[in-house]
Design a protein that fits this description.
The complex is a heterodimer of chains A (285) and B (294). Chain A is α/β, with parallel strands linked by helices. Chain A folds into 2 domains: 134 residues, P-loop containing nucleotide triphosphate hydrolases (Rossmann fold, 3-Layer(aba) Sandwich); 71 residues, no CATH class. Chain A contains 9 helices and 10 strands. The longest helix of chain B has 38 residues. Classes of the chains: A alpha/beta (285), B mainly alpha (294). At the A-B interface, strand 6, helix 3, helix 5 and helix 6 of A face helix 8 and helix 9 of B.
Amino acid sequence: MHVETSPRDPTPPRMGASMAGPPTGVTPRRGIEIRGLTKRFDGGYLYRNFDLDLQDGEFISIFGPNGCGKSTLINLISGMLPMDSGAVRYNGKPIGSTKLSYVFQNYRDALFPWMRAISNIQYPLKLLNLDKKSRDRRVESLLAEFDVRIDLHRYPYELSGGQQQTISILRALITDPEVLFLDEPFSALDYEMTLFMRERLQQVFMKRKNTMIFVSHDLEEAVQLSNRVLLLTRPPTRVAEIVPVLLPWPRDAKTLSNSDFVAVKSHCLDVFSREVGRGGEASFR
Amino acid sequence: MRSDAAGSPDAIAAPSGSAAGAKSSRVDGTLAQTQAPAAKKPRRSLAYTLMPATGPLLLIAFWWIAAETGLLNTRLVPAPGPTLSTTWHALLHGTMGHDIVQTLIRVLYAFVFAAGIGVPLGILVGANERIYRSVEFLIDFFRSTPSTAMFPLFMLIFGLGEEGKIALAAFAAFLIIVFNVAYGVLNARKTRILAARSMGASSMRIFADIIFLETLPQTFVGLRAGISVALVVVVVAEMFIGGVDGMGHRIIEDQYSYNLKDMYGSLLVSGAFGYGLNYLFLLVERHFVHWAGR
């Protein structure tokens, strides 16, 4: 399951950046390489010499038992949380020089309530010192691309939960990131809105083809959205299995009852149950 | 980006065709997930609007009846009619206006000093948890000490003139402001800071764009409490620290000279004055920190 790539020339040419299809025929040097990732927590190891390869332009879901450090893993990969040792590279470069964006679980706390929705979306561009004209142009084309019809002159607190999370996603997309980190982005929404947002996120993925790293506590969602599901063990966390999901896109609500989907999901559930059953307490150290 | 299932979770998209009039495109009421506040308040009846006036009118009525029936000794508490007419006269033709203005000037001076030092210092203290831990006790201690107990000390340092009164009021207001601002900074939502950092914002940028605004609601709570305390201290200081004018001075002079109608009038006016300051601040607050508590 675990595709190993050998360490290579650290500066591969940045050409052919646009991906044609699902990342099946990708040259192995592209993507995110995680090597020897180590992070301690409360005297124990959360991650110890953790290796992982993510392909460029893939949608990977991260799923695992409580406390296995799903969110911590993406925070370590993105560099938001310092690691004790190890290295993360994207297409051979250090991850710090990569354009990446974040979507958080709690949109209420992640959006800036003193700014109107449109200013929230534009804020990352403001940090890049873009003038107002090009900021407006970027937002306009983004809105057109995804046919968003929210009144952007409202403040976040005047919008519904789904609308607020849509604003968060747009804010993350405005800089055209190479890697998009999503930390349980739909878990604060009700089921109806979650289903809608999953379709919306798939549209984003199909159009942009950027690498998506999606933390989820909902197995159905994890399987529906990704082309690989990364299943983790209890701490010290290792890869339990990486399950490919070979279903055609887009995957709508009907996919959820498709027999192939159900088979992948139940396999993931088996792996998950096995890992939960192992009892984390004894293996924590 | 609409789902083809028309009318299903379409809360995100306004009904097609109304993109121009998007302002009016409220989210469908049938969608339970709308957390947006209702746009229109239900119409209230006139009786409901006048309800806040009930209490004061009852009090005046009670006052009037008590004075008329001899329940109150009118030599100690004059009837409302003469009191109010004396007050009106003092406001229009007498010196009460001057006293109000003098008190207001002192309060504003004290407030400007308190806020000018308290807000930046509060931010500094709150931004660094070690500094906060180090001075928390000190701030709490002085905040708990009755500031009026410091009269003699401030008289010694600043003398009996304006400086003493303003310095003491500023000190009392400063403690409240610094505490509230520091508390606000300390409790700034971590997710928002993290979000800004993930976008590549520098520490200075995060400070100016995020933490400062994040703290603003709590800062306003401190400022509002601060100006109320400044008013209290100024009025008390005017009574005792070599005052020649101001509402505090007026009230104590009225009491010495047994000018009770003017004294009660001054009390009412001082109350209205404090209420007005607080209300003004609430209006400013609602305008500038419209997102507070939402």
